Amino acid sequence: MYLWYNVADKGENMKKNFKFFLALYTAKLARLALIMLRRNATFFPGKIALKICPDFLGRIGKPEKIIGVTGTNGKTTVSNMIIDALEVNGYRPVTNRLGANVNAGIATSLLSDANLKGNAKSNLAVFEIDERSSIRVYPYLTPTYLVCTNLFRDSIKRNAHTEYIQGIINKDLPKSTTLILNADDLICCGVGSDENKKVYFGIDKLPTDVDKCINLIQDISTCPICDTTLVFDYLRYHHIGKAHCPKCGFKSPDADYLVKNIDTDNMTIDVVHNENKDTYSISANGIINIYNTIAAITFLSEFGLTYDQIEKGLECSKVVKTRFSEEKVGKVDIIMHLAKGQNPVACSRVFDYIKSEPGNKAVILNLDDFFDARETSENLTWIYDTDYEFLADDSIKQIVIGGVRCPDHYLRLLLAGVPKEKIKFTRNEEDTVDLLDLNGIDKVFITYDVYTIHIANKVKARLENRLKEEEK
Fold it and tell me: Does residue 129 contact residue 57 with C-beta atoms inside 8 Å?
């Protein structure tokens, strides 16, 4: 492992051997066969390559510049924003946009770009990198830049606690990598070492910020240096905000790229960098999207793009429709919103967004993980870390729960103070539409997990048909 780290950190490839070429040609043939069969060829070829040659990532040729994007939430959106901006400005990066963000997905992307000698044909790559895959990626691959969006607790089964994930990222992270970090997230700020160059992004204090945490969980509350209770100057949500230690002086870093103003009417943000202010377009008005946008802007600026080039990229980049979409059918707005089940912070942010939206609302909760809910006994403690209390709002007139775990969500909603007469549930996600009372409803929110977009699309289609029928 020590040898791999040093080789990767020097930006050099390990020597290509027989196993490597056997893995390369076998995986390329597998990829070609899958493409001819019109199958997904974004993960399996890389899995084959790593099975034959476990250090395949260290031996295959890599582009001269590699951009990595990691973090608990937002890494897919930020990756896509960066890729869109680069492509519209003439760059042609190798990406894993359509593939897995683990080592096998990255291996597939690299072998698809490699020639028959195993050398890279492109000089630029953008990879979304799963936090847990860090130990299987960074020993072999040195990102020129690494963007970390945030670090929150995630599925207990996979990610345990944020300090554990931070440690995994730091274990093999090359010291030559320039880090783009969230200044408002003290855990994210702990990524890397003093030897890494660090550039910070953040959002200035907002009128909606508070002085005490209103969420159920706060992943950092004591100083990581001396363990003294931190003093938060203000909080945005969970541990996002500005804090300092009254004992040793540890504090949140100043943002190099700071959002000073958010104009939701014109869908723009003002960003200050080196005392210069620029106005950029945003594609959605939620605070999470603002963080995603400023993360992308920070990297693109550090990479060398001009303001005009970045703005051109942002104008053509939209939030991925598998994450968020909005459509009006008759008099009702249908909002599709990924809630990322088993992730309490992601779900809490969605619930808070739903609460803050104007009008009378109905909510469909389809939060079960497609695989875990049907095949395993995934720990359900995450729903007790999630702020279901945001849904106990007078503007939310009805909540319909779908999925095999619906009784658990029903109980959690009752504990959150949602009146039971507002709640209905069914084990069949598609039947949730039939239980909706649309009388006086302005907006219907359909929430779903990462692996259930196909179910969510069926629910949306069924709701559209119902609304069209009722319009006749």
Answer: no
Q: What order do you get walking across the sheet with 396-402 strand by strand?
A: 324-329, 332-338, 443-448, 361-366, 396-402, 423-426
Predicted pLDDT of residue 380: 84
Q: What is the pLDDT of residue 340?
A: 83
- The residues near 173 (Cβ < 8 Å, ≥ 6 apart) are 134, 138, 146, 191, 192, 193, 196
Pairing of strands 145-148, 396-402: unpaired
Question: Residue 259's beta-bridge partner residues?
Answer: 203, 271
Nearest C-alpha neighbor of 109 from the set 90, 128, 91, 135: 128
Give the pLDDT confidence score for residue 11 in this predicted structure. Answer: 39
Whether the CB-CB separation of 19 and 103 falls below 8 Å is answered with no
pLDDT score of 158? 73
Contact 245, 225 (CB under 8 A): yes
Return the H-helix or E-strand segment holding 145: strand 145-148
- Contact between 153 and 217 under an 8 Å Cβ cutoff? The reply is yes
Q: List Cα–Cα distances, 123 to 66, 113, 140, 144, in angstroms.
A: 8, 10, 17, 12
Residue 343: count of CB within 10 angstroms of its CB: 24
Report phi then psi at 322, rounded to 5. Answer: -75, -10
The per-residue pLDDT for 374 is 55
- Pick from 22, 75, 50: nearest CA to 288: 75
What is the b/e burial string over 204-224, where b = at least 16 CB atoms within 10 angstroms of the residue's CB?
eeeeebeeebebebbbbeebe
* Torsion sign (Cα): 72, 77, 80, 86: negative
From the list 73, 110, 94, 124, the residue with the least C-alpha distance to 304 is 124
Tokens 């103003």 sit at which residue?
261
DSSP state of 324: E
SS3 401: strand
Q: Which residue positions in the chain have pLDDT lower than 50?
A: 1-12
